[in-house]
Design goal:
By secondary structure, the protein is an alpha/beta fold. The chain contains twelve helices and 13 strands. The strands form three sheets. Strands 5-6-7-8-9-10-11 form a seven-stranded parallel β-sheet. Helix 7 links the parallel strand 7 and strand 8. The structure holds 2-succinylbenzoate (OSB) and magnesium ion.
Length: 367
């Protein structure tokens, strides 16, 4: 497959409600899209980076810069596929969200050319996936209970509460008491605690949580292993796992029993699938996370969530949890599930009118 040019397009997508985590508040999703053009097909992908380097060290302007200066120029001339694109970017360190969006757009173009869906290419074994929802930090417990009640009524099969010091045991207790023991409930701290908080975090053991996601810093694999020994609730890592090598280290150290796989965070779907396979071989549970994606990023994640090792519901929520008008035909929850796209590549396209309306800038790089 020959690439004739690549477009970098920035869009601004207002969120239906601001999303508050321990690292900040997001009101508008500042998204970088990549479109890979070939004679036979166009491939689309969405970068997970956010405006500011808070969730991780990457940010949208930085991702666009490294793509423009280094990653796109490094692609081999002549025939390219996703594997070759990934290999060509390997000499550059870090910048996995940027590498992922380019590799994924190449993969989309490649699979649209051959007519295969992402789900089939990954080896998915489901045609619909159960969905959870990630619930931001609220101003008060009553407000949180209203929000969670709305999501439960919509059919979400699992609730994830964002927590931070000062917003943890009480909101978790309130949600567990109000919605009962049957609710699948988990929490995500986005690295807001230290090992000195171990005894406090152990209080969460009372609430039968499915897992505690990323309580400690991204580079605290050893500390997570120490914390895991002091808790009954399984630990899940998100920010700490940037590669299959990280996953192998975490598993060997006993830092986690669960991994939230965000294909963008680990540099793309090919590496994500290696982590899935490795974890599965070691009896470690995985599930597909999210980064407040539009329909373009969501489509690929929903396909990944359909892999056999993804045995917990993902943060793959319906379009209306994020946006009043999604960039694609909306993903709609049906009995707590989303259908896995079946068309070639990611199986969905941006809606031209919406795309134009939300576009902030575009940059064309001819090859
Ligand atoms: O930590 O999982 C996270 C969103 C942005 C950045 C980090 C995280 C999240 C979420 C929401 O929890 C996941 C989603 O609904 O896309
Ligand atoms: Mg997380």
């Amino acid at each position: 497959m020959e690439i004739t040019g690549i477009e970098l397009r920035r869009i601004a997508m207002p969120l239906v409600t601001p999303f508050r985590t321990s690292f900040g508040v997001e009101s508008t999703r500042d998204v970088l899209l990549v479109r890979v053009v070939t004679p036979d097909a166009e491939g689309w992908a969405e970068c997970g980076a956010m405006s500011e380097p808070r969730y991780c060290s990457q940010y949208t302007d930085g991702a666009q810069d490294v793509l423009r200066r280094f990653l796109i120029p490094a692609l081999p001339k002549g025939s390219v596929d996703a594997e070759a694109a990934g290999r060509a970017m390997r000499p550059f360190t870090g910048h996995r969200l940027a590498k992922s969006v380019l590799e994924t757009a190449v993969l989309d173009a490649q699979l649209r050319t051959t007519g295969e869906s992402f789900a089939s290419f990954f080896g998915a074994d489901k045609d619909r996936v159960p969905c959870g929802v990630s619930v931001g930090i609220a101003d008060s417990v009553p407000e949180l209970l209203d929000t969670v009640a709305g999501y439960v009524a919509e059919g979400y099969v699992r609730i994830k509460l964002k927590i931070e010091p000062g917003w943890d045991v009480e909101p978790v207790r309130a949600v567990r008491e109000r919605f009962g023991e049957a609710l699948q409930l988990q929490v995500d701290a986005n690295a807001a605690y230290t090992l000195a908080d171990a005894r406090h975090l152990a209080r969460l053991d009372d609430f039968d949580l499915q897992l505690i996601e990323q309580p400690l810093s991204h580079d605290d694999l050893v500390q997570h292993a120490a914390l895991a020994r002091q808790l009954r609730t399984p630990l899940c890592l998100d920010e700490s796992i940037e590669s299959a090598a990280d996953a192998a280290a975490a598993i060997q150290l006993g830092s986690c029993r669960v991994i939230n796989i965000k294909p963008g965070r680990v540099g793309g779907y090919l590496e994500a699938r290696r982590i899935h396979d490795l974890a599965r071989a070691h009896g470690v549970t995985v599930w597909c996370g999210g980064m407040l994606e539009t329909g373009i990023g969501r489509a690929a994640n929903v396909a990944f969530a359909a892999l056999p090792g993804c045995t917990l519901p993902g943060d793959t929520s319906a379009s209306d949890r994020y946006f009043a008008a999604d960039l694609t035909e909306p993903f709609v929850l049906d009995d707590g599930h989303l259908n896995v796209p079946t068309g070639p590549g990611i199986g969905i396209d941006p809606l031209p009118d919406v795309l134009e309306a939300v576009t902030v800038s575009r940059e064309w790089m001819a090859r």
